[in-house]
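Lines hold sequence, tokenised fold; shown next:
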Amino acid sequence: MAPPTGTRAEIVRRMLDSVPPGLSVLDEKSAGLLSSSTDELERISGGTAEHDRFRAVVRRGVAGLRPLDLAGETVLVTGGTGCIGTALLEQLAATPHRRIVSLNRGMTRPRHLVPGVEYQQVDVRSADDVGAAFRRIRPDAVFHLAAVRDPGAAEREVRRTVETNVLGSRNVFRAAEEVRAGRLVFASTGKAVRYFTRDVYAATKKIGEALLSGVTLPVTSAVRFTHVVDNSLILGKLRQWCEGGTIRLHSPDIAFYGQSALESAQLMAAAAERSGLVTLRNLQWPFSLLDLALGVRREASSSAPIYFCGYEAGYEAGVHPASYDPGTAGDAGPLINALESYSCDSILSDQANRIGLRGRQSEAVKVRIAELVSACGDGASDARLRVVLAEATWSALRACLHSAPADDLQRLGRFAASAHPGRAAHPDHLLVDDVIAEAVRPSGLAAGV
């Protein structure tokens, strides 16, 4: 076996230079070049260490959280047949309760049926069916997990994603208010840390958080999850590509966080205690996607080439440079942005924290969400739905900024003004700068100072 012809960085550079991004299919020559270079990378990589570390996350849990007291309460979970939903039902079933009901669309086969849980088929996209189910069940606590969760699928099925993640959440939240549930917990995503996004999945979850902020119930909470290892989309794709095909990575530099379904379920349960936005405080060291891919490839004894294809729909190249303030990021964790982290002083445990859900549902947000509902009902094109969704996301950002305390807003304004070394930034990032500046000026601070 020939020794590697260069360092890791040199091999990666050669791969990037020899086959440009953006190809849907590789020709035989390109595949051969990349396969040889991938073999070299595998020989100098850390073997399967990153893959092993990734899989070990499944066993990780959250210590120090008080068990949720549901004595005498009826609990309703939407999306309870999914990976996190099943883990949550197991957590809830282990506590004293009156009744637990899981509402499911019926499209996902349960990993297993949790003893003592009633399973009923209801599509959250139907306001009538959701309302009828809530009036029949009369839940005291509601955990809303039903969603389209695959960012790639969300880009291909925009209407289904908007109808499920936005209209479905709206239906569940309204029904919970109608029956005066005491607790409402919403499963969001770490991608919601972005001030603005055009990615359909992330945008619909940001709008879900905005909808939740307008709900008037005793406890309303959102939990942000990152990549859940137990049913990893990434791992599934890597294994499939290794069986025969091309391993398509957006970039050689991608790093991402992971958490377990158990951690996610524990956070959902903890979030039902009082209102706020809950995240894991310490997600440990992020995973290198390239090293994970090399480990999966080695374990599979695969010869599939790695191709750096560039960023595809549903996956952004990077967050706004003012998303994480070094002065607070260490305490707040990676799933909370700078504006949110300034008020992150309420710790659930040494592993999890909670911040306030600031008002994000202004009249403008309500108008945009109503436009989304109307567009779905009118059979609008995916292109039109994307436009209205983006407008709603901009409105949610403005509402969040204008509800922030003046000190926090001024701090963000100064940080954002210094975040770009120059003006060579993504156009949407420059628009975010403008929206932040627009919010800061009334408070007496010029954002450019």
Q: What stands out?
A: The mean pLDDT is 89. Residues 363-443 form one domain. The two ends are 59 Å apart (CA to CA). Residues 105 and 123 are 5 Å apart (CA to CA).
